[in-house]
Design brief:
600 residues; alpha/beta; ABC transporter transmembrane region fold; Rossmann fold; six-stranded mixed β-sheet; four-stranded antiparallel β-sheet; 10 strands; binds adenosine-5'-triphosphate; ATP hydrolysis activity
Length: 600
């Protein structure tokens, strides 16, 4: 029962991703199996035609008689050559069907792989940010690569399992038609075998689940270890990480080993089982039932093939169960990610022209830990420059995440040009934003592509080259880029490892300036820069005043002297607001003491 439920369940899952055309595989499978069973059954009239004393019609089973009638109708009943020719035609037909089936399965599988990877990637792209931060990159990579590949190969195991089921049934059905006593025995044996293997299947599936989740764990450790390679190597922390990785690899390989043992057990059983059963059956047929030789011979041939198919059916099922964990993981992941897609409205925003304002906005990552932002009320008029300052952990970056709508306030609202954030079409808002975040984002590609994000080829597009260079100049990056071996065509390495921290930051700023956003967010954007570069970029940003809205988060207060308004944040609240000069000289203001601490 469990087995049938499992098959139906997987069938549903495959259908969800492949669609109805999957059934064509089954039609082709049935046709192939029928052709094969029929081809073998044709040996019976062949044997009879070769015997001088051919079976008298009253000894014949109904099937034999029908076959005889067919051959008579075709005019080849008594011709060995005729029957041989017919067998050849049936097997050629079977070969063609098998080829069509295999080819079509290949086509479906490649589609399945493409669809799975593409859909999952799309779903990941639109997942809610809060869901993302609760997960781990290693997990996503494991699902989209390893698990999806296993899911894909499970379909071929599933198809081969079904092929074996249909083949087994067809062999047994033909055998049944020839001699029913024999077939009853065969079916009895089949049922016993199935019972024996059921327990093995449950065991193998459990192993497969463990193996899939262990792979996620290992991926997580590997990604973390490799991403932090430099830190780990230079502080010799590899030992700690290594023990975790080694332990995870040990568990993973242990599961694989046990799966293999179960596989070896089934394939080793195959041959002895078949031979024993055939020997037993011949004895029973000949001694007890005293049946004629030709039908026994053909029925045994069918039975032998049927047994082989039955055992392959078990291995096919086991292979499917080997990958069951992956099928379930990918299917669950789809549901989970789809459930956590980022909600959005339909109002398409025009370019920002009035303001961004918070009304009593409160946000917490975890309700039990209390709000990270409390009762925020402020308005940033379009085309002004504002700065948020405050100690680490005060909530400045979280506030920016609300502005970009990556996070949503649980209470109160955020209005963009008067439209509540939950009503806006996110792409229409985010395409207006340039964001230099604390974590520098650099792609492993050329400098030019890092700035224009593959907008074109600067070697061919003069206007584009000019725009890229202009952005680089304003980010004070042009001269270091010119000094690189291939200039703008230099590749920067994974996450920009071939650049210095300050160079990476300038490259990042250049990209956001190239975009010409309506809202530019700079979160500690110049923290890795020397004073001179910082001042230079400061001038570029000051030059943007009035052209776009600029939101700056800075610890170095010297960099925000020219902003229109400063907000001082403390423990998730805005505690002071005013112009730099106003706050700087306000008696006992927090800002004043902050400035004095930095001895400006
Ligand atoms: N993903 C998260 N899950 C839970 N809490 C978080 C998460 N990110 C930030 N926090 C918490 O929210 C608070 C505000 O963090 P936030 O990064 O907004 O501060 P910040 O003012 O930008 O600090 P910094 O100047 O150090 O960047 C901190 O107490 C932090 O622990």
């Amino acid at each position: 029962m469990r087995t049938i439920q499992d098959i139906v369940r997987y069938l549903r899952i495959y259908r969800r991703y492949i669609g109805r055309r999957m059934y064509l595989v089954f039609v082709l499978t049935v046709a192939t199996a029928l052709a094969q069973g029929f081809g073998i059954t044709l040996l019976l009239p062949l044997l009879q035609a070769s015997q001088t004393t051919s079976g008298s019609p009253e000894n014949m089973s109904t099937a034999e008689r029908l076959l005889q009638d067919l051959l008579q109708w075709m005019g080849i009943a008594d011709s060995m050559t005729g029957i041989l020719g017919f067998i050849a035609v049936v097997f050629i037909g079977k070969g063609l069907l098998q080829f069509a089936n295999g080819g079509y399965q290949g086509y479906l599988q490649s589609r399945l792989l493409r669809e799975l990877k593409r859909k999952l990637f799309d779903a990941y792209q639109r997942m809610d940010y809060r869901y993302y931060i609760e997960r781990n990159t290693g997990h996503f990579i494991n699902v989209i690569n390893q698990q999806v590949n296993l899911f894909f190969s499970s379909f071929s195991s599933f198809a081969s399992f079904l092929t074996q089921v249909v083949t087994t049934i067809s062999y047994f059905a033909f055998a049944f038609a020839i001699t029913w006593k024999f077939s009853l025995m065969a079916i009895g044996v089949g049922l016993i075998l199935f019972g024996l293997f059921r327990r093995l299947n449950v065991y193998v599936r459990e192993l497969s689940r463990k193996r899939s989740s262990e792979m996620s764990q290992l991926n997580k450790l590997l990604v973390q270890g490799l991403q932090s390679f430099k830190y780990i190597a230079s502080t010799n922390q590899g030992g700690h990480l290594r023990s975790g990785v080694t332990e995870s690899i040990r568990r993973l390989t242990h599961y694989i080993f046990r799966q293999r043992i179960a596989g070896a057990f089934t394939s080793a059983l195959k041959e002895p089982f078949s031979v024993l059963l055939i020997v037993g059956l011949i004895a029973i047929q000949v001694t007890v039932f005293e049946a004629p030789v030709a039908p026994i011979f053909v029925a045994l041939l069918l039975f032998h093939r049927g047994m082989q198919a039955l055992i392959s059916m078990q291995s096919g099922f086991q292979a499917m169960m080997d990958r069951a964990g992956a099928v379930e993981m990918v299917d669950d992941e789809f549901k989970e990610v789809q459930h956590h897609q980022e909600p959005q409205g339909e109002h398409r925003l025009a370019p920002l022209e009035s303001s961004i304002s918070f009304e009593n906005a409160t946000f917490s990552y975890d309700e039990s830990e209390g709000p990270v932002l409390r009762d925020i009320n402020l308005t940033i008029p379009a085309n002004t420059t504002v700065a948020f300052v405050g100690e680490s952990g005060a909530g400045k970056s979280t506030l920016v995440d609300l502005v970009t709508c990556m996070l949503k306030p649980q209470e109160g609202k955020l209005l963009i040009d008067g439209t509540p954030s939950n009503e806006i079409d996110l792409a229409s808002w985010r395409s207006q934003i340039g964001y230099v975040s604390q974590e520098t984002v650099v792609f492993d590609d050329t400098i030019a592509n890092n700035i224009c994000l593959w907008a074109g080829d600067i070697e061919e597009d003069e206007a584009l080259r000019e725009r890229v260079q202009d952005a680089a100049r304003r980010a004070h990056a042009d001269h270091f880029i010119q000094d690189l071996p291939d200039g703008y065509q230099t590749t920067v390495g994974d996450r920009g490892v071939r650049l210095s921290g300050g160079q990476r930051q300038r490259l990042f700023i250049a990209r956001e300036l190239f975009k010409q956003p309506n809202l530019l967010i700079l979160d500690e954007a110049t923290s890795a820069l020397d004073t001179e570069s910082e001042r230079y970029i400061q001038d570029s940003i000051d030059a943007l005043k009035g052209e776009m809205t600029v939101l700056i988060i800075a610890h170095r207060l010297s960099t925000i002297k020219n902003v229109d308004r400063v907000y001082v944040m403390e423990e998730g609240q805005v505690v002071e607001a005013g112009s730099y000069e106003d706050l700087r000289y306000r008696d006992e203001s927090r800002f004043r003491s902050m400035v004095e601490m930095q001895s400006l």
